[in-house]
Structure formats: C-alpha cells, structure tokens
C-alpha cells in the first residue's frame, strides 16, 4: 500500500488518487492542487514549484519536468519516430519551442499547454505552419503528448485541411495524442489518455470521443482521408 503524500501514513479510508497514482487522505486541508496531476497540496508542503503565476506543480511532476529547450530536444526525435509509426509524418518539419506558460496563459480560466502558429495567405488560402510552442515545465509525458497534439494541427494544415470545425480539429489532434499515449504502456500515460477521453470539455473531450467513434467504425485511414479531402467525418 502506498503512503499518503501529506502524513506519510497508509491513507485513511477515504483518499484521493493523483494522475500519478499517489494517494492523499481526504482529511488534510487542501491549499491548492498540482496543475498537471491534480495532487492536493497541504499548507505545510514547501517543496512544490511554480507552473504559471497562479498555478503550481507537485514534486513528482517536477522530478520529470521538461524545463529547458535542451531537455525538449532529447524527446522530440522519439516523438517524431512514434508519429511516423502511427502513419503521421509532416511533409515539412516544424520547429518546437518551449515558452513561458504565463505567456501562453494570459487568462487563467483554462490552461493552454501548447499551440501551433499558422499564417494564412489570403489570396491563395494556403496555410503555412510557422512553429509549435509548448509550455515549459510540463512532465515528459505531458510534453510529448502536447507535441503530438500540436503536430496534429500542423499535419492537418499541411494536408490542406483548414477551416475545419473546431470540435473536429481538436478531436483529431486529441486522437493522435491518445494514440501516442497508448503506445507508451505506462500507468501515467494510460491515466492521461483516460482523462482526455473523459474530458467534459465539449470541444476537446467531445471532439476526441466523436472522432474516436468514427475511427472505430471506419478505421483511421478512411477517417483521416475523409477529413482531409472533405473537411468532415465520414
Ligand atoms: Zn494523510
Ligand atoms: Zn503533479
Ligand atoms: Zn489543439
């Protein structure tokens, strides 16, 4: 049995489980939560780190964090290779840059972990992908899954699938991230994938469930060809 993250004892009858599988008795007073794994923080815990100016990361997430461009570079070749194995290869390679999560999250209602910068040429309607930005300080698994999600946006743009319905676009990208997480075969990756599938957000969670249903019915190749050629699900 694991021990409680706050008191170090076997957890009480009622306890919470973080996305890493760590237990915390529900009886401890909660100051705030880890932005990445939802672990509760007790007021006495000092070894937590900042994520954005209004959010924090627990020691477990910090121990596997991608905080620098150099750390990011270590993971990107494996992510690209995994994507190719899943049949997703970018016609033009796109640069991945770590950015301050505060720059990406000027408003704090929902947390944005990555974004793909695109430029649309009005006269030709051609979309260029300028680059991918990922929030610094994510766990390795969050980082890689977010890169995969953003490569999904770049791939759709480079395949000419622009002006998609937002639910469909985010759903395809979440499907790619989910497929990558599934390949990792780690409990944390499985938990992240499950939480993405259960995400109540109608665009991200709803889109993922919609696209996944179509893939179960028609297969991934048919779904992606249909989305790229006609801009809708088969
Ligand atoms: Zn406890
Ligand atoms: Zn955490
Ligand atoms: Zn997205």
UniProtKB/TrEMBL annotation:
Superkingdom per UniProt: Bacteria
Record domain Protein DA1-like: where: 80-193
GO molecular function: ubiquitin binding
Protein name: Protein DA1
Source organism (scientific name): Lentzea alba
């Amino acid at each position: 049995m694991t021990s409680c993250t706050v008191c170090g004892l076997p957890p009480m009858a009622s306890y919470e489980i973080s996305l890493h599988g760590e237990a915390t008795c529900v009886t401890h007073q909660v100051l705030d939560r880890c932005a990445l794994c939802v672990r509760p923080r007790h007021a006495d815990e000092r070894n937590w780190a900042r994520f954005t100016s209004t959010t924090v990361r627990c020691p477990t997430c910090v121990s596997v964090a991608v905080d620098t461009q150099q750390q990011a570079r270590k993971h990107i070749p494996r992510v690209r290779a995994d994507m190719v194995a899943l049949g997703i290869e970018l016609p033009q390679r796109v640069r991945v840059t770590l950015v301050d999560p505060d720059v990406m999250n000027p408003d704090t209602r929902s947390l944005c972990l990555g974004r793909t910068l695109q430029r649309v040429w009005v006269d030709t309607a051609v979309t260029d992908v300028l680059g991918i930005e990922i929030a610094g300080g994510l766990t390795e698994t969050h980082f890689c899954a977010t890169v995969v999600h953003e490569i999904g946006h770049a791939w759709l743009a480079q395949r000419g699938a622009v002006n998609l319905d937002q639910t469909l676009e985010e759903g395809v990208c979440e499907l790619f991230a989910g497929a990558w997480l599934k390949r990792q075969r780690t409990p944390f990756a499985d938990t992240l994938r499950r939480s993405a599938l259960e995400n109540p957000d109608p665009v991200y969670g709803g889109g993922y469930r919609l696209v996944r249903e179509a893939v179960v019915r028609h297969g991934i190749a048919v779904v992606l060809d249909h989305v790229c050629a006609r801009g809708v699900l088969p």
